[in-house]
Specification:
By secondary structure, this protein is an alpha+beta fold. It has 34 helices and 14 strands.
């Protein structure tokens, strides 16, 4: 006999394929077998059709194309006998899917088999329909499946319920047809039918709100009773797993109770007692019991509960954390992360166990536990938790130090109660894992140090000691070098000693030695060496007696292969040797860095620096009190690399404040500049950083695109005239030009409600001076609509370039309940009669010591203003 004829048995073909030593041999065997099957299909061979289809299914599982055998499935399904139908339906489910058009041809055969007198053939049809049913098939055959939910045989009812799940997922509109049959199935005693009925009930609740309400009212009590019987049932060998009665059924029951109880207090009350029974009676020394307890905890956390059960659930999770099985501990940590938002106090009781998980040998558990600890930290426990984490940082694995360091730094920055504690903890982190911290971390530390004027001496001494023991940590070296350069005189003279310090003796030469060691270390990178040169330049002014030695050290970098170091060395050497009269002014102590602006930049949202009505205090993170009366900061956070060509010192100052924004004089801006036409309202994002701006095209010779900010960021006083040439970012976005206003400035203008929220109303009253139609006087009236008192009340505004805004101080910075505050504004419209007024505002205040912020845009000014 031909080994590849249609009469070859399936096992012989499998044996031939497995005997192949190469992929080419396997392909040859499959090719010959497929050719033989094609010949049999062409000859309409009925005797071996079922055997050929079985071979095709095996070939399909090997990954070879078998589409030519699809019609053979339909022929076998249409055969009268059970063996042929079984192979036909198996091939149908394996070789076809719901996207195949040929599937439409089998609908009639399925309908006939669903009505067959043989229950096993009915079961075959239900299995096939449940696996590959399309939406069209589901609509056509839903009545037959619904009828089979009441079939006499439990196996058919079970398969009909599973098939119904597929139908309602494909056609949710049919869900209402299955609600009543499912309610009757929930009274079944057969556990297999009950399992499928509960799953069908859960899916019905998901796709239909009406079904959910129906089951809540009619079935909740019955489902609770089923669960109670399952928990208290005696030993039954057919359902027992590890001494627990049918854990699969209990888990399904808990899941449906979770759906029914979510958002419904009455349904939750029905299930409180049985959930307490499950939580207390289920054994936790077997995996089946732990699975039930986990689902019970999930259900308790999802339903409406007063809190007693939730404490019990969190205690179960605490026991899970002590389990030796890593999988159980991992799911417990995951669940506790969800529970912390529900009952954080109960989770806090297991803090010690969670901290032990941070030290676990399993990397997944360590990371998940660290994330949970991060969520647990608050003002009351930040010190002990930070100490535990920093202590573990010393002995932690190298691959875990990066994650651990990031979390510790974030905790310390966010919740530090005082500056000295913040500095101490950050120094510990930098000394232990300085090579793992990001640049933003030590940048932020320097910003905090500059703001802590009473701790400058303490900090520089601590850093000097740290650099002696942890010189291999790049971040601590950078911070130490910067501080020694800034506060070297405090280090040498022991100025600003605290009671907790022990005095140390550091000479000028010792301070320079520390920097020299850092710059000479072969592991130091470009940034560190550049900072060392800068520190040496500062110390040449602070330690005049060591100027020659400093000059010698700086000179050593003149031959560096790194251009940055070479340039700095030559320039600094020139300053030290030839420009001693300028040196002291050049290296004066750095001003206090604006911590609020830096924090905003790190968060990606620079606070808008616009007109501030008056100097007010603002609480900055890490305990700094900052006076908010700075003349200008970066409103739009625009930055370009090219310098601003201007001869005005005022413009240079503005350029520095704007972080490199191009402020060019009219002669420099020789090209015509037109903003890209767009429907976007640029003013919508004037007070938020990172907003998309209209692109500005210019015909400059170097093809660079200078971007100019709004010319008139409103200040306490008008901007210098040197900045009046900034381009109009809003050109092309304004309303249709109106005819020039008449010279008669006599008419009055009605007041407008410029802004209104649930708590505030802002009214504008307008007036003009005769002979100055382009100047508008505005009296702003802020009314508190609530009975609460608003303190630290600040009004800020931003306008486009063609407007200039001047704000006078408000009548008060406290807005009493139902009271009002007034403030005067002066608007100068340089394109009066062509463009209407428009303004973006920000109002900030404190309510019960909580910072509040309201923003809005005013575009309903009278058109002839």
């Amino acid at each position: 006999m031909n080994p590849f004829s249609s009469g070859t048995r399936l096992r012989d073909m499998i044996r031939a394929i497995r005997a192949c030593k190469t992929a080419a041999e396997e392909r040859a065997v499959v090719r010959k077998e497929c050719a033989s099957i094609r010949a049999a299909v062409s000859d309409n061979d009925n005797d071996y059709r079922h055997r050929n289809l079985a071979k095709l299914m095996f070939i399909h599982m090997l990954g070879y194309p078998t589409h030519f055998g699809q019609m053979e499935c339909l022929k076998l399904i249409a055969a009268p006998g059970f063996p042929e139908k079984r192979i036909g339906y198996l091939g149908l489910m394996l070789l076809l899917d719901e996207r195949q058009e040929v599937l439409m041809l089998v609908t009639n055969s399925l309908k006939q088999d669903l009505n067959h007198t043989n229950q096993y053939i009915v079961g075959l049809a239900l299995c096939a329909l449940g696996n590959i049913s399309s939406a069209e098939m589901a609509r056509d055959l839903a009545p037959e499946v619904e009828r089979l939910l009441q079939f006499r045989d439990p196996n058919v009812r079970k398969k009909a319920a599973l098939c119904s799940i597929r139908i309602i997922k494909k056609v949710p509109d049919l869900a209402e047809n299955f609600v009543n049959p499912v309610a009757s199935l929930l009274k079944e005693k057969h556990h297999g039918v009950l399992l499928t009925a509960i799953q069908l009930c859960a899916d019905l609740c998901i796709v239909s709100e009406e079904a959910l309400e129906y089951f809540r009212k009619k079935c909740t009590e019955g489902i609770v009773k089923i669960l109670k019987d399952a928990v208290n049932s005696p030993y039954a060998p057919e359902y027992d797993i590890s001494g627990i009665s049918d854990p699969f059924l209990q888990i399904r029951l808990l899941r449906i109770l979770r759906i029914l109880g979510h958002g419904d207090a009455d349904a939750s009350d029905f299930m409180n007692d049985v959930l307490a029974q499950v939580a207390t009676k289920t054994e936790s020394n077997k995996n089946a019991g732990n699975a039930i307890l986990y689902e019970c905890v999930e259900t308790i956390m999802s339903i409406e509960d007063s809190g007693g059960l939730r404490v019990l659930a969190i205690n179960i999770l605490g026991r899970f954390l002590s389990n030796r099985d890593n999988n159980i501990r991992y799911v417990a940590l995951n669940m506790l992360m969800k529970a912390i938002s529900v009952d954080g106090q109960a989770v806090q009781r297991h803090r010690a166990t969670i901290l032990e998980c941070v030290k676990d040998s399993d990397a997944s558990i360590r990371k998940r536990a660290l994330e949970l600890v991060y969520l647990l930290v608050n003002e009351s426990n930040v010190k002990p938790l930070a100490k535990e984490l920093i202590d573990y940082l010393v002995v932690s694995d190298q691959d875990f130090k990066g994650d651990l360091t990031a979390k510790i730094c974030s905790i310390v920055e966010k919740l530090s109660p005082e500056k000295i504690w913040y500095i101490d903890q950050m120094l510990k982190v930098l000394c232990e894992a300085g090579n793992y911290v990001k640049d933003e971390v030590w940048h932020a530390l320097i910003v905090v140090i500059t703001n802590a004027s009473n701790l400058h001496g303490y900090t520089v001494r601590s850093l000097y000691k740290a650099i002696q023991t942890s010189g291999d940590q790049e971040a601590v070296v950078r911070v130490a070098v910067w501080c020694i350069g800034e506060y070297g005189d405090l280090l040498v003279n022991n100025i600003g000693m605290l009671d907790i310090e022990e005095p140390i003796t550091v000479t000028e030469s010792d301070a320079i030695d520390a920097i020299e060691v850092a710059i000479m270390r072969h592991t130091s990178d470009l940034t560190t060496r550049a900072m060392c040169l800068m520190a040496l330049l500062k110390l040449s002014s602070r330690f005049p007696s060591c100027s020659q030695r400093i000059k010698d050290i700086v000179t050593q970098s003149k031959g560096s292969l790194l251009l940055e170091l070479q340039q700095r060395s030559i320039e600094f050497n020139s300053i030290i040797g030839k420009h001693q009269n300028l040196r002291s002014a050049l290296v004066e102590r750095m001003p206090v860095l604006d911590e609020a602006t830096y924090s905003g930049r790190r968060a990606g949202s620079v606070p808008a620096a616009v007109s501030t009505s008056q100097g007010n205090t603002l609480n900055i993170p890490n305990g700094v009190v900052k006076i908010v009366d700075a003349p200008l900061v970066d409103l739009l956070d625009l930055g370009v690399d090219e310098p601003a060509p201007t001869n005005s010192s005022a413009a240079n100052f503005l350029h520095d404040l704007l972080g490199g924004v191009d402020i060019s004089s009219p002669s420099a801006q020789s090209g015509t500049m037109q903003p890209q036409k767009s429907g976007t309202d640029v003013l919508l994002d004037l007070l938020s950083s990172g907003s998309p701006l209209a692109q500005i095209n210019t015909s400059t010779s170097d093809n660079k695109i200078p971007v100019s900010p709004l010319n008139s960021l409103s200040l306490s006083s008008p901007l210098p005239a040197a900045t009046s040439s900034m381009m109009d970012l809003l050109d092309g976005f304004g309303p249709t030009p109106t005819p020039p206003a008449p010279k008669d400035n006599g008419p009055t203008y009605p007041p407008i409600v410029a802004f209104e929220s649930a708590s505030l109303r802002l009214m504008f009253n307008f007036s003009k001076q005769p002979g100055s139609p382009h100047i508008t006087q505005i009296e702003a009236n802020f009314t508190n609509k609530s009975s609460d008192v608003y303190t630290d009340f600040i009004f800020q505004a931003a306008v486009p370039k063609f407007l200039q805004l001047h704000l006078e101080p408000a009548s008060s910075n406290t807005l009493n309940g139902n009271g009002s505050v007034t403030q005067k504004l002066r608007l100068t419209n340089n394109q009066h009669g062509k463009k209407s007024l428009v303004m973006r505002i920000r109002i900030s205040y404190k309510l019960n010591n909580k910072d509040m912020l309201e923003e809005g845009q005013i575009s309903n000014f009278p058109r002839d203003l």
